[in-house]
Amino acid sequence: TSEAVTLAVDPSPVVVTQPGTGKLRRVLVGTSFTNTVKVASCRDLTFEWRREGQVIVPGGRIEVVPVKNPTGDQTTCQLIVRGAQLSDSGNYDVVVRSPNGSVTSRSTAVQVMLPPPNDFFASRLTLTNAASTLGGSNFFTSLALGSNYFGTAESGEPVHVGQNPLHSVWWTWQSPAPSQVTVSLEGSDFDTLLSVFTGAELGSLTLITNNDNAGGKITSRVSFLAARNRVFQFAVDGRRGDLEEGLIRMSVQAEEIVSPPIILYQPRHLAVRQGASATFAVGVWGSPRSEEHTS
């Protein structure tokens, strides 16, 4: 009887760990990201990473790093992209080859993004009004589409619905007339927080109203009265911070208030020296004008 011998069969490569998670991965421009693939043990493997079907040539910002297992075989490979650029967005996969065959991994989608343009209070976006008339009433509507992906909190920023800011973004809006105003985030794809302020400096804002879930399901909705030409600041954040980033759909509808004038405050008695000037003021609310008269 002969001695026993061992027959080692080197199969075609099989992917056991796919790159990515199967979901779109968002990456902040300028940062790095890594795709990793792992295959069942084979010898003499080569890895060819691709983006949108085009072979990626390593060099500069891009590095391909094979990782050896304890037996010395290269069964894991990483694609490292440093200083991500917008042009690095796309679908990535890897072709793994051995002398006995090849296999192509599942693709993974990467989107490289800029930070939101209205991340900071000083760079808040201005909402514009579109006028319409319905049933004898005047309406002013503003619509906005944005996101808070990679938004940040600022030093001195107020809390939003009892939560410290994490990924807040900002808009500013001016009331065109005395109005009943409704701001809704219905249609946004995450659990939103909405705060409405007045004031022109981040550190001295005055809260008018805020809301978590009045917009239906997990979105926000608020209503308030606005005088003519009053400027308001809107902040949107996510309820659970890192877990709540996404697209924001905002609608602002202002219905002009038509009412007879109402005296908000009366002129005060004054005592002045003979020949001096005297100024009296009265505050009036009404529509189509809301103003303060002095004489």
Helical content, roughly?
Answer: under 10%
Q: How does the helix and strand content classify structurally? A: mainly beta
Number-wise, the strands total 23
Shape: elongated
User: Could you give the order of the helices and strands?
Assistant: EEEEEEEEEEEEEEEEEEEEEEE
How would you describe this protein?
Helices cover 0% and strands 46% of the residues. The protein is an all-beta fold. Strands 2, 4, 5, 8, 9 and 10 form a 6-stranded mixed sheet that branches. A 5-stranded mixed sheet has the order 11-14-19-16-17, with no helix packed on it. A 5-stranded antiparallel sheet has the order 12-13-20-15-18, with no helix packed on it. β16 and β17 form a beta hairpin. It is elongated and about 130 Å long. The C terminus is likely disordered.
Keywords:
five-stranded mixed β-sheet; mainly beta; six-stranded mixed β-sheet; 295 residues
Fold blueprint:
Blueprint: E1 15-17, E2 25-28, E3 33-39, E4 46-51, E5 54-55, E6 62-68, E7 74-81, E8 90-98, E9 101-104, E10 108-113, E11 125-126, E12 130-134, E13 137-147, E14 169-174, E15 179-184, E16 192-198, E17 206-211, E18 221-226, E19 231-238, E20 247-256, E21 262-265, E22 281-285, E23 291-294
Parallel strand pairs: 2-10, 11-14
Antiparallel strand pairs: 1-3, 3-7, 4-5, 4-8, 6-7, 8-9, 8-10, 12-13, 13-20, 14-19, 15-18, 15-20, 16-17, 16-19, 21-22, 22-23
Summarize the structure.
The chain has strands at residues 15-17, 25-28, 33-39, 46-51, 54-55, 62-68, 74-81, 90-98, 101-104, 108-113, 125-126, 130-134, 137-147, 169-174, 179-184, 192-198, 206-211, 221-226, 231-238, 247-256, 262-265, 281-285, 291-294.
